Amino acid sequence: MLRGGFLIQSQAYERYSVEKDKMYQALKKGPYVIRMKRAPFVLRRLHVLAVCLIVWALVVTTDSFAASVCDTDDISTWSDCVGNATLPDGATYSGEWLNGLMHGQGEYAFPTGSQWSGDRYKGEFYEGVRQGFGAYFYANGDVYKGEWNDGKENGLGTYIFGTNSRWAGDKYVGAWRAGEKHGVGTYRYANGDTYEGEWVEGAQTGKGTYRFGKKSKWAGATYEGDWLNGRRHGLGKYTSGSGEVYDGEWEDGKFVGTRPQEITNKTSPARMQEAGDRQTWLRVSSGSSFAVNRNGHLVTNAHVVTSCEHVEVQVPSGRMKATVLGTDRRNDLALIKIDYEPKRSYMLRTETPHLGEDIFLAGFPYGDSFSSSVKVTKGIVSALTGVDDNTGNFQVDAALQKGNSGGPIVDPAGYVIGIAAAKLSAEFVQSKFGTDSFPENINFGIKASVLRSFLESNHVEFVEDTDMLGGLSENRRVFEDTILNGTFFVTCHIRNPG
Q1: Which positions ≥6 away from 145 have C-beta within 8 Å?
Q2: pTM for the structure as a whole
Q3: Which value, in Å, is the radius of gyration of the alpha carbons in the chain?
Q4: Helix (H) or strand (E) holding 23
Q5: Which of 69, 106, 226, 404 is deepest in the core (most CB within 10 A)?
Q6: CB of 96 closer than 8 Å to CB of 23
Q7: Which residues are CB-neighbours of 457 under 8 A, at least 6 positions away?
Q8: Which of 349, 348, 404, 403 is nearest to 379 (CA)?
């Protein structure tokens, strides 16, 4: 209960739990029992809840004012108390302490004359460092409000540039890692320009859309496509304010070539070539994906669509172009969109995987090499973490082949508990344990909790098991129909250099 810093409130909540139980027992024995029996169930529960909330409010209020004050001169002895101190370097801190360290809620002001003179932080501490949620106020007027880890901006947060900043009026809202903009985020410039998309270590890198504002020299123009280190780089489409279009290859911010003509649904599965001297396309890889809603949003692995110049999804009527809306390379997730309404979509399970539970894996192993239909394999959850104890992954023993990547891993009720991601390679095992070692049934999936955060950050609607009663397996036909009509074959294409 100490992590996050709500020490006083945690103690109050423990007292509230005890008082709640006592109050409920008293209500059952006292004069209220007749009324409660006659009242509908919901009203009875609301009656008890109202009383419990009153008790909780009284306990929290009492405990908050009863918090102990650090009353010795030796800061190193301060623990489970609230105190104000001037630290040896001249900085000041007012707030909660634990074992002589800033721990919990507090406010820290940097010392005069230091590199950060005038800066201050107000929020959560953990063992002497900024961790949790907090606001950092810079001397020049900049403000960051959001999540912290190990003293650096990490997680979701908002940065507003102050009036004395070089970038006065700019604002960034999105993901951070180790003090840098990293992940999906939106940057709004003071002149009205906006960038929405991916960031890596503080620079626009990945997929993104830049819109020029009314005050810009290029007002009304937009660019949608690939970025690298803050510049347009890769495939992208620029539309000027007057309607001119530059659609194709970009290098270091400059347009260098037109995009090949669109692929039609009549092209062959592996090699797509249009008549005459039109551009030749080559399929280089394939994978699996699944629908998370009925609006055409599909989820797959980032490695399935990375470096693709064109992505296609197989639907009942043929092949259809897919748009990559976002990727998370760190967690190997990608969001793609097709202009098609799936007959079925999957639901996410809120409960984490259980060791030993049965699972089913749906996808398209080896693509359409020997069959175009979706395949299902069965196994169990064999470990709750991935390689190097990665808590965002889990291990399964269900067969996972090339082409399964991006497919759903579901429980017996049909709810998604993860996404097929990778299998342990023979090369890795042999390099670690010798050439006579071969991995068997060691495969990994990405947990649904990681997917949930990814979808929320991309503002995509999805359904969870808490949104409806019962599982898909209550109707076996629905379970089968979801796999057949909610799982999709994905192909990645590049221009044929020949």
Answers
A1: 134, 135, 136, 157, 158
A2: 0.46
A3: 28
A4: helix 7-29
A5: 404
A6: no
A7: 156, 174, 175, 183, 184
A8: 404
User: Would you state the structure tokens that stand for residue 270, as one six-digit string?
Assistant: 């592996």
Q: What are the structure tokens assigned to 343, written together?
A: 């007959």
> What one-character DSSP code corresponds to residue 348?
B
User: Is 156 within 8 Å of 176 (Cβ atoms)?
Assistant: yes
* C-alpha–C-alpha distance, residues 145 and 124, integer Å: 12
Q: Comparing 2-11, 184-193, 205-214, 377-386, which segment has the lowest mean pLDDT?
A: 2-11
Place of tokens 């190990």: 150
Per-residue pLDDT of 133-144, as tens digits, reads 999 999 999 999
SS3 category, 305: helix
For the CA atoms of 401, 479, 328, 220, the dihedral, rounded to the nearest 10 degrees, stands at 130
If you average pLDDT over residues 53-68, what whole number do you get? 49
Residue 205 CA to chain centroid, in angstroms?
17
Reported as a single tens digit per residue, the pLDDT across 345-371 is 999 998 999 999 999 999 998 887 667
Give the Å distances, CA to CA, from 205 to 62, 171, 230, 326: 51, 18, 6, 11
The partner residues of 152 in beta bridges, in order of sequence, read 149
Place of tokens 């495969």: 443
C-alpha triplet 248, 250, 254: angle, nearest 5°: 125
Strands (DSSP E) contained in 352-498 are: 358-363, 375-383, 393-396, 408-410, 416-423, 443-447, 487-495
Q: How many CB atoms lie within 10 A of CB 16?
A: 21
In one letter, which amino acid is 239? T
Which structure tokens are listed for 96?
A: 């909660």
Dihedral pair phi/psi, residue 237, rounded to 5°: -125, 120
What is the residue type of 162? G
Residue among 365, 374, 361, 345 at smallest CA distance from 287: 365
Compute how many other C-beta atoms are within 10 angstroms of the C-beta atom of residue 398: 21
**Angle, helix 7-29 to helix 41-65, in steps of 10 degrees:** 140
DSSP string for residues in 310-332: EEEEEETTEEEEEEEEEEETTTT
Identify the residue whose tokens are 């993860």.
Answer: 418
Q: Sorting pLDDT into bands at 50, 70 and 90, what band is 280?
A: low
| Contact criterion met (CB below 8 Å) for 212 and 221 | yes
How far apart (Å, rounded) are the C-alpha atoms in residues 270 and 276?
Answer: 19
* Residue ranges with strand state E in 43-91: 81-86
* Pairwise CA distance, residues 192 & 216, whole Å: 7
- 17 phi and psi angles, rounded to 5 deg: -60, -45
Distance of alpha carbon 236 from alpha carbon 233, whole angstroms: 8
